[in-house]
Amino acid sequence: MKIKTLSVSEVNNYIKKILDNDFILNNLSVKGEISNLKLHSSGHIYFSLKDSAGKINCIMFKNRAYDLQFPLEDGMEVIVKGRASVYTASGTFQIYCDEIEKEGIGELYIKFEKLKSKLAKEGYFDEELKKDIPKEISSIGVVTSETGAAIQDIKNVIRRRNNLVNIMLYPAQVQGNGAYKTIIEGIKYFNRKKNVDVIIIGRGGGSIEELWNFNEEDLAIAIFKSNIPIVSAVGHEVDFTISDFVADLRAATPSQAAELVTPLEIEIYNRIENNQYNLNKIMERKFDVEKNLLESYDELLRLKSPLNKIVNGYLEVQNLKERLDFTVKNKIDREKHKLISLNEILQARSPINILRKGYAIIKDDNDNFLKSVGDFSDKEDINITLRDGYVKGSFILTERGGDL
């Protein structure tokens, strides 16, 4: 018997028909843990339902979601009621949910909350301990899978914003048992080399199991101990991991991480121009201040210059000389007038003037004045001073007269 060759859509439609006609699959009640929850803008809810051994994709349409009595969360244990079928466009097997009942909290979610509480108490999430992301970035280290979409998104965003920034990839495993150890190695590598300004760790979205490596305590400790600031960019906007809480900055997606740490090239040029302008202004003000200070020093030096002192000394000497000359002249004038007065008195009382009146001065040979008759001796030589000269002679005393 020859089997007919079917197209993909025919196979999908055939499977859908079989599933839609199965009584059990059309009346399912399935217990599991919610994972990879997505609340679409259309109002539809997408998530995975899983247990320790398997996973089923689920969808709850908007009209059914209105009837939910509680918000859905990753890690929540629920009982889903609905039907299983195939979405023929992609061949995806999924459960179409009509009702969801809360059952409890999943094991991984409990483990996540327990570790989160422990690290919070130990100070791993303290804001004051987080390092600032540098504003001047020249090199960015990325720790992620070299084949994943995350590295491509990061590269595209960085290159779009700034072609000058260097991108250094440390290829790490981001999924699977023990993958977190390679992420730790990447962090230690960049810290040892000190060749980047910031480190981005992360990956694309996934279930809580797929993202679990970023919930490991050893990785949280490595992030906390890093000397280089770390940005955690794990999953999508609704995904949160321990790495997000302990990192210096959390980005909703790898693309956003690249956006947050990469300065726009035009902003760098503008900042350089502004800094240059401000520097020029500062230098101009500094030059003006120093110029004014120099001028004040020059004026002070001019005022206190030894040459000024010498000139002032000359002026002072000249003033003193003039004052001395004036004083001496006054003194001479006074003394001159005084001398004239004394001379006039002397002239008035001078014997010469008396001689002019006919008197004479008589002295002996010893130049003694002969003022009375008793001063004369017989035949004594005498000197007679008259008005117009001297006469020398001798006389014979014949008789002494009486007093006048």
From TrEMBL:
Keyword Repeat: no
Domain Exonuclease VII large subunit C-terminal, chain residue ranges per copy: 124-324
Residue span, OB-fold nucleic acid binding domain: 6-101
Localization terms from the record: Cytoplasm
Catalytic activity: Exonucleolytic cleavage in either 5'- to 3'- or 3'- to 5'-direction to yield nucleoside 5'-phosphates
KW Amino-acid biosynthesis (keyword) present: no
CDD domains: ExoVII_LU_OBF
E.C. number(s) listed in UniProt: 3.1.11.6
Pfam annotation, one family: Exonuc_VII_L
Keyword annotations from UniProtKB, A to Z: Cytoplasm, Exonuclease, Hydrolase, Nuclease
Enzyme superclass (EC): hydrolase
Family: Belongs to the XseA family.
HAMAP family xref list: Exonuc_7_L
General function of this protein: Bidirectionally degrades single-stranded DNA into large acid-insoluble oligonucleotides, which are then degraded further into small acid-soluble oligonucleotides.
Subunit structure: Heterooligomer composed of large and small subunits.
Protein name: Exodeoxyribonuclease 7 large subunit
Taxon lineage: Bacteria, Bacillati, Bacillota, Clostridia, Eubacteriales
Gene: xseA
